[in-house]
Amino acid sequence: MTATIIDGKKVSSELKAALAQEVQQLTEAGVRPGLAVILVGEDPASQVYVRNKEKTCIDLGMHSEVHRLPADTPQADLIALIEKLNASDAIHGILVQKPLPGQIDEKAVIGAIAVEKDVDGFHPISIGNLLIGDEGFVPCTPAGVIELLRAYDIPLEGKRAAIIGRSNIVGKPMAALLIRENATVTVCHSRTANLPEVTREADIVIAAIGRPNMVTAEYIKPGAVVIDVGINRLPSGKLAGDVDFESAKEVASAITPVPGGVGPMTIALLMKNTVESARKALASRQ
Ligand code: NDP
Fold first, then answer.
1. Least CB-packed of 41, 132, 263, 266 within 10 Å?
2. Kindly report the CA angle at 266 between 202 and 69, in degrees rounded to 5?
3. Atom of ligand 1 nearest to the CA of 262
């Protein structure tokens, strides 16, 4: 079987093209969508992520603000900046880049972001809204996975999905989203017994583990769809997913590559959330 390669670059480009048009309309109506990104310290990977977000904002015609703070910034100063951005009419989304330095309590910082500007979807109220089925922002990576599956017309209703990973930013919200799509969901983690046996039951396998090439063909039912969220830097400098792409693509019916699968969707969904927030800001003015 030759698996369909799910092209996240293409789907994210289409999404961004549609967003650019919406940004233009909103700007003409008086609200230019604006995203503020806060980076504390000089983590090299975070700097790359922040630059990508800034560039994407600018490419889409959005307003972009990047606040770079020194690594020894006191928590109170960071929260004071968030409160200023909460009150700013130019800003519709606020994102604090993780990881944060040790003196800062991540929960306190995320909790300080106004829920209506929580475009990362990590605020406890946003997560709660997702679980109870209310409207609100959804974390960008799992939301991006759903968009990818939709773009390829992969049915979810009545299907069995296995997620490997139960983090707050990927695994758990992914489970909530798949339940919302009427899939039957199994969430696996490091204590799951007989993992390959469990995942072999699934029509859709989503790997969000952080272990390069762990998910081999043995984990996959013939014809299943495989979504690889993992981004792992190998000692050689190359990127690898959590799925062993070469063996998995021989049994899967469709599979995402790394890079070029889920990765580009995450940033596109961040922009989508920010545009949606700007749309709501405009509606509340009218
Ligand atoms: P975490 O480290 O927070 O969570 C990893 C999860 O995998 C945990 O639930 C852990 O189980 C589980 N796990 C670890 N080892 C095993 C194992 N041997 N067998 C089964 N389960 C295991 O990672 P994240 O969720 O933050 O990220 C996961 C991956 O996705 C990483 O590679 C990350 O870089 C990538 N990522 C990609 C994004 C993108 O934009 N594409 C965005 C965010 C993350 P337990 O809970 O028991 O410890």
1. 132
2. 135
3. 41
Catalytically active residues are: 53, 97, 120
Degrees to nearest 5, angle at CA 166 with 160 and 169 = 110
C-alpha of residue 165 to centroid of ligand 1, in Å: 5
Q: Give the chain's largest Cα–Cα span.
A: 56
Question: Does 252 share its domain with 183?
Answer: yes
Which pTM was predicted?
A: 0.97
Angstrom distance (rounded) from CA 49 to CA 261: 16
pLDDT digits (tens, 9 = 90+) for 232-280: 999 999 999 999 999 999 999 999 999 999 999 999 999 999 999 999 9
In this structure, are 108 and 161 located in the same domain? Answer: no
Q: What CATH number does the domain containing 98 carry?
A: 3.40.50.10860
As for ligand 1, residues whose beta carbon falls within 6 Å of it are: 141, 164-167, 169-171, 188-192, 195, 208-211, 229-232, 242, 262-263, 266
Domain membership of residue 234 (yes or no) is yes
* The total number of structural domains that make up the chain: 2
